[in-house]
């Protein structure tokens, strides 16, 4: 992993420079007679290719940011989405691996020079790569198949450097996710990702989730066998990556995984007092028995009292069309700042489409629906844009909002039809009161 700030900054700086160069080249091609659509498609493809190449090489915060963006690709218009869809989806599961010597040195440091005695077998070729570490397939000394997650050397330095630089380029990435504010996303990711550097904390999180979902018919969380600050060993699980289900799953499989994902998102705070805060397809798998396996618990929010009750009340008030009561609750919770005055009916009109999935018994999440929401709130000339700019997102709600939005993005990628109302009625405090 490249550690030096200057080297990483240069790579990240190549992104806006590359985009600027392609824009100038695009103007030239249009003057030469090529259609705007053809030039735009070519520019999108090349930008996506460069985005993947740079973020994938850097790993760290850069790649983590790419993974966070990838769940929002459902909001990008279809004519522009495909190149980003391909490039960003790759970021969810692939990256250049560290060298064998670097991997062995990290295991020596974390588990001691006799670490091989803990394993009956150990595959030195990584089975998967992620933003700040890679995973190896091995056999534990008692015969169990295990996954060994090893952090990249220099991940901590690289991560902090990336986030500082990415904050400077936030406007560049805004175009990839219309209707989503990038700077708050980066700020919140900074807080979560610093926590992810200590695998002992991640191991504790995973143990808590595994205990809460032990014996569950729908969700499997692998058990943790051992952990160190930069190495973690868990049970190995074979399954179909959710990205594959999105691409080629049957209608039944996509609906089933959509329901599993929704149930997990809404029920975990009540069952474990924790919220899995890294929703992207690379962290979920479909098992042969129909269950969903959840991995990667580095980013977790502590919600000992479950999901905030006011969110459930707000959803119910919006569905019931009670604009005045909704407005007063929003003001009390800090969504409307003191001194700000907005028409309650405008607020209801702005929020109503977002709570639409909680209305019918079944809701069909589609890319088209998410694109409509992104276009609606991102239209500079529209009333909803002005209303949205007048509202505030209190810090205590930022993480829940981002994770819910990310989960919704995956549901739209799945094109899943889900009984969201029953899931929310059961697990979201305040909704059914």
Description:
This is Putative unusual protein kinase regulating ubiquinone biosynthesis (AarF/ABC1/UbiB family). It comes from Labedaea rhizosphaerae. Keywords: ATP-binding, Kinase, Nucleotide-binding, Transferase, Ubiquinone. There is one protein chain. By secondary structure, the chain is of the alpha+beta class. It has a domain at 309-427. It contains 18 helices and 14 strands. The strands form 4 sheets. Strands 1, 2, 3, 4, 6 and 7 form a 6-stranded antiparallel beta sheet that branches. Strands 5-11-10-8 form a 4-stranded mixed beta sheet. β6 (224-228) and β7 form a beta hairpin. α1 runs parallel beside α6 (155-168), α6 packs antiparallel against α8 and α11 packs parallel to α18. It is globular. The relative contact order is 0.11. Mean pLDDT is 80; it is low at 12-44, 56-62 and 175-180.
| Helix-strand category | alpha+beta
Taking the sheet with the most strands, its summary is: 6 strands, antiparallel
User: What multimeric state do the chains show?
Assistant: single chain
How much helix is in the residues? 55-70%
Rg estimate, integer Å: 22 Å
Question: Could you give the distance between the termini?
Answer: 51 Å
Count of beta strands: 14
Strand content: 5-15%
**Taking all residues together, what is the mean pLDDT?**
80
Number of helices: 18
Given as residue ranges, the uncertain stretches (5+ residues, pLDDT < 50) are 12-44, 56-62, 175-180
What gross morphology would you assign? Answer: globular
